[in-house]
């Protein structure tokens, strides 16, 4: 009897016999009648129906401040900027401007990767930015801020050639220092400024690492030196003779040959155009932008 399914018998638990089926009374220990769930319509008066369980509220530790959510602009509710950690940039008023600021700081990194503790400016990052600035119609002028100790010669010349070949007005401002290969970058702009306390080191090219002591090595070094000297003299008011005199002067640097120019000294020799700061650089750049607009407008009217 244990294998008999009592629920399949129509006469089970009805109390009445069913024609065609034997009447089997309810047996003790028989399986209980299954509970059948009847669908209910939500919203019926007196019958709320099946309602989904509300989601459980997250457990918040009262001693921990909740983390604010980010917005589309990358600014969270507390006003923090996501780029502070990655780029070191602080928040500024969101005003539309036609001038782009291009900083060149630290050591200019070229073909060799420098140690991670060095503050570097990678030329493979600078060149695409300069191309984008040249193609962006909303940018009408570029302000270049320099505080560099120099670095790779070919990388510095590549950045300088990109700056001087731009069609848009450019102004450079040397703050802190514009040493070594930073000199060609500073003079590559249409107009150059230097802070009163900033310095620039003029010295000959030096090689690091393994050097083969053959005449060809000296000839290559001499040609590279000529490339730097010719670029500086073409884009500034210093003469070739004066620049080489500053470059190969002895006695001013303790363990090297060269000259350190501070502020006004750089303008007196014709290397930099003017001593000034950020206000003078922005004013001059706006002046160059207006002059360029007049030239373009005059060309369209002819």
Overall description:
The protein is built from eight helices and eight strands. By secondary structure, it is an alpha/beta fold. The strands form two sheets. Strands 2-1-3-4-5-8 form a six-stranded parallel sheet, sandwiched between helices. Strand 3, helix 3 and strand 4 form a beta-alpha-beta unit. The chain is extended and about 125 Å long. The termini are far apart. About 3% of the residues have low confidence.
Secondary structural class: alpha/beta
Strand content: 15-25%
Helix content: 25-40%
Please count the helical segments: 8
Q: Specify Rg, calculated over alpha carbons.
A: 39 Å
Mean pLDDT: 79
| Low-confidence runs | 71-79
Strand order of the largest sheet: 2-1-3-4-5-8
- Whole-Å distance between the termini? 112 Å
The shape, in one word, is extended
Major sheet size, sense and barrel closure: 6 strands, parallel
| CATH C-level class of the domain at 100-105 and 121-131 and 140-301 | Alpha Beta
Keyword list:
2-enoyl-CoA Hydratase, Chain A, domain 1; 8 helices; two-stranded antiparallel sheet; alpha/beta; extended; 31% helix; six-stranded parallel beta sheet; 302 residues
Which helices and strands occur, and which strands form pairs?
Layout: H1 83-87, E1 99-109, E2 120-122, H2 123-135, E3 141-151, H3 153-164, E4 170-178, H4 182-187, E5 191-194, E6 199-202, H5 215-234, H6 240-247, E7 259-262, H7 264-268, E8 274-275, H8 278-301
Helix pairs in contact: 2-3
């Amino acid at each position: 009897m244990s294998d008999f399914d009592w629920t399949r018998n129509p006469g089970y638990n009805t109390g009445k016999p069913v024609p065609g089926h034997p009447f089997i009374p309810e047996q003790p220990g028989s399986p209980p009648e299954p509970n059948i769930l009847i669908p209910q319509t939500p919203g019926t008066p007196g019958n709320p129906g099946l309602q989904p369980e509300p989601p459980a509220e997250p457990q918040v530790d009262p001693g921990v401040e909740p983390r604010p959510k980010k917005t589309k602009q990358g600014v969270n509710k507390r006003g923090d900027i996501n780029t502070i950690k990655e780029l070191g940039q602080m928040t500024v008023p969101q005003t539309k401007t036609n001038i782009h600021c291009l900083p060149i700081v630290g050591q200019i990194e070229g073909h060799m990767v420098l140690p991670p503790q060095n503050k570097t400016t990678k030329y493979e990052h600078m060149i695409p930015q300069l191309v984008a600035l040249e193609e962006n119609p909303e940018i009408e002028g570029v302000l270049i801020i320099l505080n560099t100790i120099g670095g790779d010669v070919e990388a510095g010349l590549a950045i300088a050639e990109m700056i001087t070949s731009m069609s848009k007005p450019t102004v450079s401002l040397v703050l802190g220092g514009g040493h070594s290969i930073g000199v060609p970058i500073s003079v590559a702009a249409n107009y150059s400024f230097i802070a009163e306390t900033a310095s620039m080191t003029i010295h000959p090219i030096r090689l690091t690492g393994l050097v083969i002591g053959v005449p060809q090595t000296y000839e290559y070094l001499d040609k590279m030196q000529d490339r730097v000297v010719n670029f500086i003299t073409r884009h500034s008011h210093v003469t070739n003779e004066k620049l080489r005199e500053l470059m190969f002067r002895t006695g001013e640097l303790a363990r090297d040959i060269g000259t350190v120019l501070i502020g006004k000294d750089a303008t007196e020799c014709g290397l930099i155009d003017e001593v000034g700061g950020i206000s003078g650089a922005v004013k001059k750049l706006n002046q160059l932008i207006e002059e360029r607009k007049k030239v373009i407008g005059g060309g369209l009217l002819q």
